[in-house]
Amino acid sequence: MTSSLITSDAGTMMGKPVVSGTRITVELILESLAAGETTEQLLDAYPRLTIEGIRAAMAFAAEALKADVVYPVASLK
Hints:
- This protein is mainly α.
- It has helices at about 25-35, 40-45, 50-65, and strands at about 5, 20.
- It has a two-stranded antiparallel sheet.
- The longest helix is centred in the last third of the chain and has 15 residues, at about 50-65.
- The protein is globular and about 35 Å long.
């Protein structure tokens, strides 16, 4: 994987990928950024989160999307 900053353990957050040493999921980081929150707002809201953790979450998601799986997206008409 792209970074040891992202881990997954069945005993933490039901196995969702999280920033190591936290319960902050990659999903939460991506949803927050997509909703318009800034990295500064995330860092303020989650003191254990680092800019490196945010970057690792984005890299993890990008790597996951490189898989040979097609994800259909509903039309946004």
